[in-house]
Amino acid sequence: MHVCKNPLLFINIMASKISFLYALHVFLFVIPSSTSIHTISLNESIMDNQTLVSSAENFVLGFFRPVGSLNRYVGIWYNNVRKQTVVWVANREKPVTDSSGILTIKNGNLVILDGNGTDVWSTNVSTTVTDYASARLLDSGNLVLSSGDDENNVKVVWESFDQPTNWFLPGMKLGKNSRTGLDWYLTSWKSSNDPARGDFLFRINIQGIPQFFLMKGSNSSWRSGPWNGKRLSGTRGMDLEFIYTNHFVSNDEETYLTYNLTSTSAISAMTLGTTGQLQWLTWINSSQTWNPYWSATEDRCDAYAECGAYAACTTNTVPCECFHGFEPKSPQDWFLRDGSDGCVRRARLECGKGDKFIKIERAKLPDASVARKVAGVSLDKCKDVCLNNCSCTAYASADISQGGSGCMIWDGDLIDLMVFPNGGQDFYVRVAASEVEESTSSKKKPTVVIIVVSIISGMLLLGSCGYCWRKKKSKRKGTYDSFDCGGEERKSDILSTELEESTESPDLPLFDLSIIVGATDNFSAVNKLGEGGFGPVYKGELMNGDEIAIKRLSKSSGQGIEEFKNEVALIAKLQHRNLVRMLGYCIQGEEKMLIYEYMPNKSLDFFIFV
User: Fold this and answer.
1) Whole-structure pTM over 0.85, yes or no?
2) Which member of 126, 238, 551, 584 has the greatest number of CB atoms within 10 A?
């Protein structure tokens, strides 16, 4: 008998024999690579260079390598999309580092083995019946594992749709099953070349009224709003029935959203990207590209709680607006466009004493975590239910698909409400009765104002007529008044309009003669600076303390309206830091004047004494 005296040599020989037997086993039971199959059974395997293809050739399952990575994963991807698009990954957290991986059925479970025969991933189903087991790739993209004691007594024990990764495919569920404990949600890839779990997830929150949240870690970044009978209230543009039909199921056992495409040839689904972008994509075969026709975060208002409590986010220049009856909690931050602190009530609610409601149209309903449903009541009855509950802050219809049925009641702060340009639904916010009465009275104010203004206008007209009569009387005594009346005033209006048109709107203000008279103390000789060929120049002081220089065109100067218009137009175009600045002009009656910035030390002489 020959005894091996070298233990290391003996171990190497035995290891080589084991590897040979394992490879021989795989070779004997591996699926021929030239065969297009959609099912593997007990003792059959898929090697790295082989695939499963669904019966209608919609999806493919096999090993793949992300671009920029050396690692190998088992995944499912679209068969008819030229750019490989992986929609599900099995061993996303534990890749195979080379091409020696194998997918097979072992002890009733689907398992991935590396080159050493070590388990890399498993469906990890607890089952004692392993006589018959098979895995089949369906045309929906769902990989289903079945097990039983014979071919006629088989049940589904595991499916990939129960463990989604970053794609929400038609027929898949997003939600929760309270009986089985299944939690269907999306998680992003860590990066474009690493399918491990990333920072973002999209999942349901069943607290209050169920709704979906897009989250980064534990922080909410977007919210879908509750189901309103037609769609999730915050998903504008997603009710496209010609592309797909949504179905929302909520009962004692499970709550979930699912959908089906209306065309079997269409390729369209929702995906969660590595940077948190939640999008609905459609494959355009003609351009060989994915076209996003919906995105969860299209603008600033889509961010969760952008405007805080009791405020609406709109697409206006100033996005945050307090509800009627509310005011900013932090006015300074609000002025600086930071609305995160939200708004507070101006008047406290008085439960049982006639609180009212204001309606917000085209709304994305606020966070429903503090809301509840009341079944079988109309919208009018819903109002009464809210009024009879002192903690109720708002209400809305629970189902808008049939003209409004059922009721949603909010019992806490109203957060993350958005007003859409179109779509949305009506939302009713509880406010103190005084806020509604104030709003109603404000609507009556325009009528009252018109009456009051009419009376005052009549009185002013009578007063101005009396004043003009006094002016004419005073002119006979040689005094000067601050403005002309009648035909002369109308004439000055015509000249002023003509001037504005001829100077192409120089943006120079038109001064009233009364202001100039007051500034110069009725053209006092004390304020006279000098006189040029077209008339005198006066110094004046406005009510705010600014000093001005007034060039008053002499009635005998010969400069008419045309010369005056030309001078205004020319000086308006010649504004320069080295020239005296023109502030405006005055035309009233026969008076024509130019108003300049006052420059001391006779620096005006070279410019306006001409």
Assistant:
1) no
2) 551
